[in-house]
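Structure (tokenized):
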């Protein structure tokens, strides 16, 4: 069994995919536009939006979609924690994610990580970015 995250966007899913590819080197595994969705859920004029996409970030699968069925709700009450390979990778991801968003916590050393930062991306998603040379990620 595994649990995967599914993120919904208001017409900006393609932009999010590109942002996460830049920030984390995410691999796009699968993408289907609404033009290929079942007829009963298509929306006129929205065929180019993303019905479903799957990204691989490291060992994690992240699912994304443009929310034409109003399933999204509001982002809140969670954050995505990413364990990165170096302190420089934390800094680079923070810069990319916070462009158009915000830096909630600048990069710093903590008692649990050698480099740790928090960004809110342009879509309102909170990303906690961490590097630790310890083999046991926390």
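Design, position by position:
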């Amino acid at each position: 069994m595994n649990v995967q995250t599914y993120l919904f966007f208001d017409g900006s899913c393609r932009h999010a995919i590109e942002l996460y590819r830049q920030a984390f080197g995410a691999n796009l595994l699968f993408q289907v536009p609404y033009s290929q969705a079942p007829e009963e859920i298509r929306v006129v004029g929205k065929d180019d939006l993303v019905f479903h996409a799957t990204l691989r970030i490291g060992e994690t699968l992240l699912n994304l979609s443009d929310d034409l069925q109003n399933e999204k709700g509001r982002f809140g009450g969670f954050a995505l924690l990413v364990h990165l390979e170096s302190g420089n990778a934390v800094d680079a991801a923070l810069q990319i994610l916070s462009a158009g968003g915000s830096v909630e916590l600048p990069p710093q050393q903590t008692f649990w990580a050698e480099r740790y930062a928090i960004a809110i991306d342009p879509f309102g998603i909170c990303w906690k970015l961490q590097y630790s040379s310890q083999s046991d990620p926390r």
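Reviewer-requested clarification: The longest strand covers residues 50-57. The chain has two helices and eight strands.
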